Amino acid sequence: MGWGRPAVTSLCLLAVVASCEQARSSTPAAAVPQAKKAIPKPKRPKCLARSLGELRAGALPSADCDGEGRSCEQACADGDALACFERAVAVQHNSATRDKAGAVFARSCELGLAIGCTNYGAELWMSDREADQRCAQQLFEKSCDAGETWGCGMLGRMLLDDDEADPDQVEEGRTVLEDACDELGGFSCRVLALQLERGRLGPTKRSKIRKLLARACATDDDDSCGAPRSAAATFRPAKHRAPRADRTHDP
């Protein structure tokens, strides 16, 4: 497949995921105070998908942690995946430390939290390095397999936003999004609506796009709510929030 780099400058992540058209589109607008303790210098870890065991979607046990403070940082260091995720979100939303968030998302991913893998993958997707983009796809696949709708949505986007995609790749992207929307709902339905609206999957009726956004809203994708005028409009930066690691993805 061709490796189309997203034409944006910033995820939450959700994250993932900040630019309106990419995973970073999930980043809340509010900044957080400067972290009190030094953040580890980001590295380019090898693709975590090759060494990951079973990933879990939804919540993992966590300390009372909002991403800041020594106790939260310690909880992450001690192996609390959700604490690492909350820490990474705080680091990412602080302009002074934003470029260091990837290493903390990677730690959350390594500890088994699917949404952490999605966000780390979104960081890698924006890299110029082909190896990083290949790793991003592996992470999205692993996260999606764990039942994490943001991972499925990002995988579908990666496959369909590629200008060099052949018909088989386009069909794969369609299948990923349709299956995830049917089974999980949420963000994957919104991405499917976006791709249909763009004409990437052939002609469609506006009523179908509205139904997909309504399903996304009904299954915890708040950015799809409020009768948006288009699927594309839901990807504006002001409308995005960080995906919650403690949210379940029921059909």
Explain what you see.
- It is built from 9 helices and no strands.
- The protein is mainly alpha-helical and 251 residues long.
- Helix 2 (81-92) runs antiparallel to helix 3, helix 7 (167-183) crosses helix 8 (187-197) and helix 8 packs antiparallel against helix 9.
- The protein is globular, with a radius of gyration of 17 Å.
Task: Write a compact overview of the structure shown.
With 251 residues, the chain is an all-alpha fold. It has one domain (23-239): Alpha Horseshoe (Serine Threonine Protein Phosphatase 5, Tetratricopeptide repeat).
What distinguishing features does this structure have?
single chain; mainly alpha; disordered N terminus; Serine Threonine Protein Phosphatase 5, Tetratricopeptide repeat; 0% strand; 251 residues; 9 helices; 44% helix
